[in-house]
Inverse folding.
């Protein structure tokens, strides 16, 4: 897995167009402080081919999760947001602009570190 940095975050989100129209595949709680989110999304760097992205959130401080059988019901039309604020990464469904709006998302995670891995569709 590759670490995602604050400086590389904007480029990362642009590459995947903020995960608009993506599909949430799974949310796995590895332990209370580590959670993995798997998405299928289009990759701008690969002529918009579909790929799988694993996001590994470590040192999780707050989260609102849903069961795997509910993931199909989450609307990803507006994508997802990942922001870096207060030395933390915050992930939430939809267009969010700060940690406060992310906390009102149907699914969110706030962690100290974030890593990602690309995989086959």
């Amino acid at each position: 897995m590759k670490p995602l940095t604050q400086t590389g975050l904007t480029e990362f989100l642009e590459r995947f167009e903020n995960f608009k129209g993506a599909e949430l595949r799974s949310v796995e709680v590895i332990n209370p402080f580590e959670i993995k989110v798997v998405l299928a999304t289009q990759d701008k760097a690969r002529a918009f081919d579909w790929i799988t992205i694993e996001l590994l959130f470590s040192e999780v401080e707050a989260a609102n999760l849903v069961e795997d059988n509910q993931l199909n019901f989450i609307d990803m039309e507006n994508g997802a947001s990942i922001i870096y604020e207060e030395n933390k990464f915050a992930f939430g469904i939809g267009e969010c602009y700060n940690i406060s709006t992310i906390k009102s998302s149907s699914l969110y995670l706030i962690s100290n570190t974030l890593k990602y891995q690309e995989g086959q569709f």
Observations:
- The two ends are 17 Å apart (CA to CA).
- The chain has one domain: 2-119.
- The mean pLDDT is 93.
- Residues 31 and 58 are 10 Å apart (CA to CA).
